């Protein structure tokens, strides 16, 4: 189990850089045997001073394995808190394999498990749970906003915020419990309202802080998980062609037969530093066969879960769109009026400006709202630039608000769940008139924050987190 892993009597090693051909590969060793392992690989050489790089021939059984840059860090001043050695080898697979196999033959050394270096860092108190989460996000970050946010989380933004909430909760609770004890001694003489009044004011202030944190959760989560953008619309409007064009590679199947895109396909884009997950969907219309109906059901699900729904219409075949766009259908099919952008595609098929104006004004009338309309031509290389620009504008308007520089507060679903539960417990506390019940609700609120910072259920959180880690991290 995981607890046996955190016993650090053994020394672990792993390739910490990516697999494959590279200029340099970093092999990391951590534990009490790390320095001994370096000595074994560099017989007759002086140990380098801690934190100074030195060039060394790595040898195993009379053979030279590589000429490498070696570094050592003495615990506790290291990432894991243990003695750590880094071997910066040449990146070829044979070199890496040679070094790893030599290490595995040394006594009391074993390959690291997924995330085991980080787990040891956590056990040594180098990182809190949310910082481990930030590290995981940083390693997975593919856009600048993801990187910025992950760095701040790793730097302790959440750890500090949650820690402050936790001590305030503890303070209020301690005061409530003291009042209860005092009340017992006075045998019911104490006025409950007088006792609770000031504590309720503190609880209300804390509640406001939690609500503010939840207010930016959408943005933080969209940055971390990506903004979900769905292309919906009737069959043959050109959704798959647009997705292909935007991905600049054949990601979705394009065909002339109506209703052939049965799966929702996903393409990832980087727009203004946001990771955008663009989904192609099967055409929304009344399905004939069951397979297609399944595709349509998924398309509707994708729309419901989307941050931005783009409705694609064939400009050369406009009547297709009118049904779906009618207000009645809009209410039935699109929860919360989920339709943010209309894409008039195939405008290359429109003869002249007059015809174009006619279609646009008809479309405007049919829509009955001032939804943005963009025009595209999926068969021209730059034919979807207007769509990209419109998506980008939407994301920036929505999430690049003045509070952009605020520290992230709630970036994972786990965070949202516990912050919300803590807020609910505070709400319940604020309805109580008995100090005992007030204190009990505060205890429940404290439990939720405890789960956030890993004071409670930490093994569950770490186990699920490290499942996503690579070996060597
Ligand atoms: P979907 O069912 O909405 O995914 O539509 P597809 O992307 O499969 O496209 C249906 C047909 O329309 C294909 O033959 C495409 O080549 C064609 N098509 C898509 N976009 C355009 C466009 O902008 N102009 C023209 N002329 N044809 C297009
Ligand atoms: Zn399609």
Task: Name its key features.
single chain, 473 residues, alpha/beta, Four Helix Bundle (Hemerythrin (Met), subunit A), Rossmann fold, 3 domains, six-stranded mixed sheet, 18 helices, 49% helix, binds guanosine-5'-diphosphate, MnmE_helical, tRNA modification GTPase, GTPase activity
Description:
This protein is an alpha/beta fold. The protein has three domains: 2-127, Gyrase A, domain 2 (2-Layer Sandwich), CATH 3.30.1360; 144-216 and 408-453, Four Helix Bundle (Hemerythrin (Met), subunit A); 222-403, Rossmann fold, CATH 3.40.50.300. It is built from 18 helices and twelve strands. It has helices spanning 2-6, 34-41, 93-104, 116-123, 129-140, 144-154, 157-185, 192-215, 217-225, 239-247, 290-304, 319-325, 327-333, 353-367, 385-399, 413-431, 435-453, 458-467, and strands spanning 11-15, 24-30, 54-60, 63-73, 84-90, 109-111, 227-232, 265-271, 274-280, 308-314, 341-345, 373-375. The protein has a six-stranded mixed beta sheet with strand order 3-4-5-2-1-6. Strands 8-9-7-10-11-12 form a six-stranded mixed beta sheet, sandwiched between helices. Strand 11, helix 14 and strand 12 (373-375) form a beta-alpha-beta unit. Helix 7 (157-185) packs antiparallel against helix 8 (192-215) and helix 7 (157-185) runs antiparallel to helix 17 (435-453). It is flat, with a radius of gyration of 29 Å. It starts with a helix and ends in a 6-residue tail after the last helix. The model is unreliable at 1-6 and 326-337 (pLDDT under 50). It binds guanosine-5'-diphosphate and zinc ion. One of its GO terms (biological process) is tRNA methylation. Keywords: GTP-binding, Nucleotide-binding, tRNA processing. It is found in: Mitochondrion.
């Amino acid at each position: 189990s995981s607890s046996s892993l955190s016993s650090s009597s053994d020394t672990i090693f792993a390739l910490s850089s990516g697999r494959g051909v590279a200029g340099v590969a970093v092999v990391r060793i951590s534990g009490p045997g790390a320095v001994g392992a370096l000595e074994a690989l560099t017989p007759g050489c002086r140990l380098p001073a801690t934190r100074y790089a030195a060039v060394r021939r790595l040898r195993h059984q009379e053979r030279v394995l590589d000429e490498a840059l070696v570094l050592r860090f003495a615990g506790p001043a290291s990432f894991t808190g243990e003695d750590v050695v880094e071997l910066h080898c040449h990146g070829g697979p044979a070199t890496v394999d040679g070094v790893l196999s030599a290490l595995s033959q040394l006594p009391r050394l074993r390959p690291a498990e997924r995330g085991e270096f980080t787990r040891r860092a956590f056990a040594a108190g180098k990182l809190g749970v949310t910082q481990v989460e930030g590290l995981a996000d940083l390693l997975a970050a593919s856009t600048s906003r993801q990187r910025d946010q992950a760095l701040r989380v790793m730097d302790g933004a959440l750890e500090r915020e949650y820690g402050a909430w936790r001590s305030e909760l503890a303070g209020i609770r301690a005061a409530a419990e003291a009042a209860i004890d005092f009340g017992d001694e006075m045998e019911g003489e104490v006025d409950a309202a007088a006792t609770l009044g000031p504590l309720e004011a503190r609880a209300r202030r804390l509640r406001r802080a939690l609500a503010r944190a939840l207010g930016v959760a959408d943005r933080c989560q969209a940055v971390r998980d990506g903004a979900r953008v769905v292309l919906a619309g009737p069959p043959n409007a050109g959704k798959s062609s647009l997705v292909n064009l935007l991905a600049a590679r054949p990601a979705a199947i394009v065909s002339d037969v109506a209703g052939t895109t049965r799966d929702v396909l996903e393409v990832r884009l980087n727009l203004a530093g946001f990771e955008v997950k663009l989904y192609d969907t099967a055409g929304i219309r009344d399905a004939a066969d069951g397979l297609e109906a399944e595709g349509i059901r998924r398309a509707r699900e994708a729309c419901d879960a989307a941050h931005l729904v783009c409705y694609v219409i064939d400009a050369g075949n406009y009547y297709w769109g009118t049904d779906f766009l009618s207000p009645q259908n809009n209410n039935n099919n699109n929860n919360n009026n989920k339709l943010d952008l209309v894409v008039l595609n195939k405008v290359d098929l429109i003869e002249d400006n007059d015809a174009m104006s006619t279609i646009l004004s008809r479309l405007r009338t049919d829509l009955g709202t001032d939804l943005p309309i963009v025009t595209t031509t999926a068969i021209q290389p730059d034919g979807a630039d207007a769509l990209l620009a419109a998506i980008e504008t939407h994301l920036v308007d929505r999430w690049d608000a003045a509070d952009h520089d605020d520290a992230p507060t709630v970036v994972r679903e786990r965070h949202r769940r516990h912050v919300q539960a803590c807020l609910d417990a505070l709400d319940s506390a604020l309805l109580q008139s008995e100090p005992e019940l007030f204190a009990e609700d505060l205890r429940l609120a404290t439990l939720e924050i405890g789960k956030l910072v890993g004071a409670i259920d930490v093994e569950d959180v770490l186990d699920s987190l490290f499942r996503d880690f690579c070996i060597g991290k």
